[in-house]
Amino acid sequence: MTTTENINDGATATVDTDIVLDVQDLNVTFSSEDGPLRAVRGVSYRVRRGEALGIVGESGSGKSVTSMAIMGLLPKTAKVSGSARVLGQEVIGLNDAQISKVRGDKIAMIFQDPLTSLNPVYTIGYQIAEAVLTHRKVTKQQARARAVELLDKVGIPHPDRRVDQYPHELSGGMRQRVVIAIAMANDPDVIIADEPTTALDVTVQAQVLEALETARKETGAALVLITHDLGVVAGHVDRVAVMYAGRLVETGTVEDVFYRPRMPYALGLLGSLPRMDEARSEKLTPILGTPPSLLDLPAGCGFAPRCPMAQDVCFTTEPALEAAVDGDDPDPFRRHTAACHFGEQLVDARPEDLFQATAPAAETAAGPDGTGGAEAAGHGGERTDAAPPEVLLSAVDLVKNFPIRSKGILRRKIGEVQAVSGISLELREHETLALVGESGCGKSTTARLLLQLIRQTSGEVTYMGQPLHSLSDAQMRPLRRDLQLVFQDPFASLDPRMTVSDIVAEPMQIHGRGKGAKQRVKELLELVGLNPEHGSRYPHEFSGGQRQRIGIARALSLNPKVLILDEPVSALDVSIQAGVINLLEDLQDELGLSYLFVSHDLSVVRHIADRVAVMYLGKIVETGTTEELFSAPAHPYTQALISAIPLPDPVKERTRERIVVTGDVPSPADPPSGCRFRTRCPKFANDLSDEQRNLCVEEPPDLLDRGTGHRDACHYSQVVELI
Amino acid sequence: MLVYTARRLAVAIPVLLAASVLVFLMVDLSGDPLSDLRMQQPPPSEEVIAAAEARYYLDRSIPERYWLWMTGIGGNGDIGLLQGQFGPSVRGGAFDIGEELSDSIYVTIRLVTAAIIAALGLAVLSGVVSAMRQYSKLDYTLTFIGFLALAMPTFWLGALIKEGGLWFNQTTGTGFFFTIGANSARVSNMTGWEYFLDSAGHLVLPTITLMLTSFAAWSRYQRTSMLEVLNSDYVRLARAKGVPNRVVVRRHALRTALIPLVTVATIGVVGIIEGVVITETIFQWRGLGYFFIEAVKAQDAFAIMSWLMLSGTLVVLANLVADILYGVLDPRIRYE
């Protein structure tokens, strides 16, 4: 902060002691069978002591490869050039012995998946102590004491006992804290966190992000936070760098990038993001197409093929990362830069000025399609005003227990997991009901019960007045035409050895409607926005978003009335996800479908659902129209969920009220008595008297309307405004 | 860990019992041990045959015989596994099955142990080296050697190795390789040290023969599992901690990569016990392999059953050792 004049000229040898990480013109190329793959191209950035820089990008943008290159963790097949200095010391090109002295001492890293990041055969205490012992001359006892101290700091209860446990004895959130503790072990100057919360549930994500903040404060380290989640970035960093196709395309303070983006890609990302704080009527504006192949990069701007304002020059000359029109901040660290020939045109632009809310056929860019999505209004609350539509699919007191069996040959039943315990819900004609909850809450099991893919332990499932639970598989088959399923993973749910046409036609053949299937497949592909000529291709030739469209086409092939969508967009990148969400909305309007939308992502749910049911440990804890539920959540769990979802808006995200839950979800094999949420409930812990608590412990609350306009299952429900 | 071991031991007992029933039934149903006697010309008298039947308990029912074979209760004192009696041999009273068996074990156990240790050691070494230098010339060479060894049948490879040893001795005019027997003939007047050297010398060629196939298979497994672990997130995190590569490989990669090898090697022990029959025949050892072949030739039912029970026990023991090793290597198993 003191010698800003010197850094103005990046080439001067002046060492600013405040700069802890200085990356200059970093390039990474992998050699592949198809030629050189240019993963990172000319990335330069600096991070000052104690500062937090967010690096944002979609999969394949090179954001992880950049940091792996700095850490020297790339495989030998990767060619790395350029410079990266940690506290002035060059780290690119060091041998193993040299870089080992820097790694874990001056610069530490946190990885994405806490379930695989720790060695299963050593105790967590050993793994933390190892980090200390590698760099410090201390005794084993001292290292162990430090491990206990670190575990305490990252918020692990009973650290003196936990220290001797193995990773498999800890939950995912706990393990990620252990990884953070390892990163903190030697008070590093830089901590690189690569998608540190992506694999975690939202309420746990909030806890882990807090632990990460603690780590920063305790060590005074600078943080490089790599993520695809714009919400996480908005709340936790000072500056943002956006990566696309291996390059930095925009940098600046969070406010600059979120409120005044000067690169169409950044603007497009923000526009394609479903937001929890926006009403449903607003249509998302996806970015069309897919990122360029890193094997065959275009000559000009990497984003030009997807950019609605691209001109000829964009296809021939790659724009440099230069100060944006308003990038006149004297402090070069805070200066707003963007790589766009026409950045000044984006002043005051909104995403919808530039990007179109897509019609279904947009993915192929094959020309206009009559079903113009933007005009297809009639979303959201309006529909509820009409006479209540017919109930299509309903469940009453649905229960599903899975047996826990002993190990060994006898496999005795030694207990039960209550995956779903007493759920009632109704899906009406032409509506979207969202089933929301964290992993293990029973939402997917409920979806499968409704389809009768698994049979319930007790309870009833009815479709159009006909009870499904008593039907045999053969009797069920004709009804399956009406009830179709779309899966989460677009890669695993399509047979790689079948052509797209065969995949889409298969349900028709099974149901004896093979005649005319060829024509129907073409219609379906066109309907979901794919080029009907591509039917003879195989799934691997398509991108994730396109494959999900194939899965939707398959589900639609029998003209179903109900689609059960199990996390249909959670595996997709933001810019692609928006297109699929729009497609689902358009299809619903056009075909009059009903959706049961299973999701953990409240932002997406807010955008797509008419009604929401929130699940916790096998029970519905709150249900109501989307508007009611988001504007006036009454159950503490719903409130915690809503406040845990980061908003992609720096000011709102940093000023909003938070309701934080602690700990992990209890085992469904042994749920707490009374209200199942009480063990984590902030209200139970902070606001209730002992007398009031007795009720929570003894009496399971019923799902009732308690004067809030919708139903919740809390003895002491109270509406809180959170957004 | 103690509870874990005890539980594994408890499981071994019913397995051995089941094995004994199977062994007994299969041998019992496979032929009449007295067929030679009955075919003699002139035919022996009824009394002689009856006496022989009584001597070998053939006059009892099948369940009775099994009971006798296991417990010896109601027998002539020469039968009952639980009493340490292996039953009467058809090769006459001078042939004590128990004594012969223990002599054979002493010979064979050296060979089997040496082969397992050599195969495991070399497999781990070559697997680790191959994995760390994936797609290098060294990796390709080791892979080639592995597949070559896998492709060659033991009986042919063994003969080849023996010939090679003989050829070496001839060309150099020395007795460098021992190609016959487990020890030299003049073993009785050797000192302890001389005896050890002599035994070790005789072990060299048979061990190589016996271990090659197992080594080849195991090194492939070790390479694969090592590669998987080297690319794992926790190895990456260990590097990110600043642990030098050498230590990461030893401490974090090797230990977890050994876990799948334990499974494979346990199954492989059965193969080694099979292979020992062939190897001992080639190198003319009087070990378990020789014992088995002679017993089959003589239709010596009790000897065959004893041998089968012994190999069954060895396999169960190998599994037990593997289970305990699992527990040592992988805490997740220990706690279940």
Your description of this structure?
The complex is a heterodimer of chains A (723) and B (336). Chain A has an 8-stranded mixed beta sheet with strand order 6-7-8-3-9-10-12-11, sandwiched between helices. An 8-stranded mixed beta sheet of chain A has the order 18-19-20-15-21-22-24-23, sandwiched between helices. A 4-stranded antiparallel beta sheet of chain A has the order 2-1-4-5. Chain A is of the alpha/beta class and 723 residues long. Chain A contains 27 helices and 24 strands. In chain A, a hairpin with a 2-residue loop joins strand 21 and strand 22. Chain B is mostly helical. Chain B is built from 13 helices and 2 strands; from the N terminus they run ααααββααααααααα. A two-stranded antiparallel sheet of chain B has the order 1-2. In chain B, a hairpin with a 4-residue loop joins strand 1 and strand 2. The longest helix of chain B has 39 residues. Chain B starts with a helix and ends with a helix. The model of chain B has no long low-confidence stretch (mean pLDDT 88). Classes of the chains: A alpha/beta (723), B mainly alpha (336). The interface between A and B is medium-sized, with 34 and 24 residues.
Write the layout of secondary structure elements.
The complex is a heterodimer of chains A (about 725) and B (about 325).
Chain A: H1 4-8, E1 19-32, E2 35-48, E3 52-56, H2 63-71, E4 78-86, E5 89-90, H3 96-102, E6 107-110, H4 114-117, H5 124-135, H6 140-153, H7 159-162, H8 172-184, E7 190-194, H9 202-219, E8 222-227, H10 230-236, E9 239-244, E10 247-253, H11 254-259, H12 264-271, H13 312-316, E11 322-323, E12 337-338, H14 351-354, H15 382-385, E13 391-405, E14 413-428, E15 432-436, H16 443-450, E16 458-463, E17 466-467, H17 473-480, E18 483-486, H18 500-510, H19 517-527, H20 544-556, E19 562-566, H21 574-591, E20 594-599, H22 602-608, E21 611-616, E22 619-625, H23 626-631, H24 636-644, H25 650-655, H26 682-686, H27 690-698, E23 704-705, E24 711-712
Parallel strand pairs in A: 3-8, 3-9, 6-7, 7-8, 15-20, 15-21, 18-19, 19-20
Antiparallel strand pairs in A: 1-2, 1-4, 4-5, 9-10, 10-12, 11-12, 13-14, 13-16, 16-17, 21-22, 22-24, 23-24
Helix pairs in contact in A: 5-6, 5-8, 6-8, 8-9, 18-19, 18-20, 19-20, 20-21
Chain B: H1 2-29, H2 35-39, H3 46-55, H4 62-71, E1 79-80, E2 85-86, H5 97-132, H6 137-151, H7 154-172, H8 192-230, H9 233-240, H10 245-283, H11 288-297, H12 301-329, H13 331-334
Antiparallel strand pairs in B: 1-2
